[in-house]
Amino acid sequence: MAQAENLTGCRFGRLTVLQQAENRHGRTCWLCRCDCGNTHVAAARDLKAGKVTSCGCRRRQTGLAIADLRGRRFGRLVALYPTDKRDKKGCVYWHCRCDCGAETDVTEDSLTQGNSQSCGCLKREAQQAIPTRLHRVDGTCVEWLEKRKHRSDNTSGFRGVYPLKSGRYRAAIGFKGRRYTIGSYDSFEAAVAARLEAEELIHNGFVKAWRCWQQQNAGLPEAQRLPFRFEVQKTDGHFIVKADTAP
Description:
Blueprint: E1 11-12, E2 15-24, E3 27-34, E4 39-43, H1 44-48, H2 57-60, E5 73-74, E6 77-86, E7 92-98, E8 103-107, H3 108-112, H4 121-133, E9 136-137, E10 140-141, H5 142-148, E11 161-163, E12 169-175, E13 178-185, H6 188-201, H7 203-217, E14 229-235, E15 238-244
Antiparallel strand pairs: 1-2, 2-3, 3-4, 5-6, 6-7, 7-8, 9-10, 11-12, 12-13, 14-15
Helix pairs in contact: 5-7, 6-7
């Protein structure tokens, strides 16, 4: 078992580490002395992560601004003055001005720990920019298909494979708002193999065809671009893909 890092003498906020304490819940803990004079036991990882910086006296000083943040910048926010508001932990709210011109109240912890860096305009800008970064074709997002292959979100442990009451496994795949049943199989491994084969044909095939279409039409005006077509049909238990750029 690896030896715990020696934090004796280290300082974390108002806490100075005195000696190692008894472990709690399998976590290495340290006895610390706070600047207010009290002692406090804290987990090593909480100290190093900045989650514990006092014995609790900071939270009890609800009538005071804990630290002077006036004029300090946190992302797009500049702290102006402390308010009388406190959160449920007793942390003071600072009135801040955002670079966009809006003003908002944010807790000291949210500012100093980097959890709040704007009045909310950063998030709104990111959301507005999403459509420009994604390509949707017939209601299907190309980038989503590229990343979706890494997901595993059902009870069988593999995407698109579902256990049946009979003990068999059913494989299915979705495309352009439709759900296609691939088949049912005696074993999980067979269902997964069938699902992967369908993904290669349909999902990966769609992405490759789209990227190829983009290269063929790069730089062409809209009126001169050939239409993109990628259709899937299931006939006699087999998938048939029709993909071309011809009218």
